[in-house]
Amino acid sequence: MRSAAIIQPIRKYLLAFATAFFFVLMLRITLPYLGFRYDVGFLLTKQGVLYHTLWRYSFYIHICTSLFVLLFGGFQFINTQRITLHRALGKWYVGIVLLAAAPSGLVLGFYANGGRWAQVAFMLAAVLWWLTTLNAFLSIRKGDVDTHRRMMYYSYAFTLSAISLRTYALVFPFFFHLPPNQMYTLIAWMGWAPNLVIAHVLLWRRSALSRRLDDLPIAADRIRY
After folding, report:
1. Phi/psi of residue 112, each to 5°?
2. How many CB atoms lie within 10 A of CB 188?
3. Domain boundaries in the chain?
4. What is the per-residue DSSP string for 32-76?
5. Which long-range contacts (CB under 8 A, 24 or more apart) does 59-62 make?
6. Quick check: 50 and 38 in contact, CB under 8 A?
7. Which of 16, 33, 36, 152 lies 20 to 30 angstroms, CA to CA, from 6?
8. What pTM does this model have?
9. Spatial separation of the C-alpha atoms in residues 12 and 77, rounded to whole Å
10. Which long-range contacts (C-beta less than 8 Å, at least 24 apart) are formed by 102-109?
11. pLDDT tens, 97-117?
């Protein structure tokens, strides 16, 4: 129990540092686009759809709102004791994902580079992001904390795809020599699928630990008698 009391604050500090680090990283990536020039980075690959009003608005909505859900969602896993703040940040997270970040991501996915399967990957991620976030909100409204926690893990796994996708885009070319469309499709799926597996493993470990703690009084009674 003493080791757990030591590890818990360290874990929270590490989570806070990681959240702040990734927020700043994504902010640096996003800032060049806020000059609303069309000859910057990713936009150079989207000249064919850049003048579609729906795509253009969706792009700017997505890159701006994703910053905030990355920040708000990360601190939800750190701040679980201050209920008022936890609820406030949670409402902002849910509202931004459901009304802006996920719908705009769906539009971007429809026009994604890489061909049909890359488009399917991005659109499926947007739909599942929306559904898991909605389920997290509805479950906590019903008082179902376990389902809420599980769905928030999965929802934030999709949020973190903004980080994982860019990481794979930098790393994969050193290990895989694929045509551009195939590489983009691979990254589109890997951007979020492993995140869900990691979220599931973390939830399984949390559940296993909870069961072991529940069994401790029973084991103590058996030893005593």
Report:
1. -65, 150
2. 28
3. 2-224
4. GGGG--SSSGGGGG-TTTTT-HHHHHHHHHHHHHHHHHHHHHHHH
5. 59/33, 59/104, 59/108, 60/33, 60/36, 61/100, 61/101, 61/104, 62/100, 62/101, 62/104, 62/105, 62/108
6. yes
7. 152
8. 0.85
9. 8
10. 102/126, 102/127, 102/129, 102/130, 102/133, 103/58, 103/130, 104/57, 104/58, 104/59, 104/61, 104/62, 104/65, 105/58, 105/62, 105/129, 106/130, 107/54, 107/55, 107/58, 108/55, 108/58, 108/59, 108/62
11. 999 999 999 999 999 998 999
Residue 34's identity, in one-letter code, is L
What six digits make up the tokens of 102?
């996920």
Q: What are the counts of helices (DSSP H) followed by strands (DSSP E) for the chain?
A: 9, 0
User: Which two tokens mark 211?
Assistant: 């069961």
Token pair of 81 as six digits? 């004791």
Q: Which residue has the tokens 């979220």?
A: 199
AA identity, residue 25: L
If you search the block for the tokens 């792009």, which residue do you land on?
Answer: 59
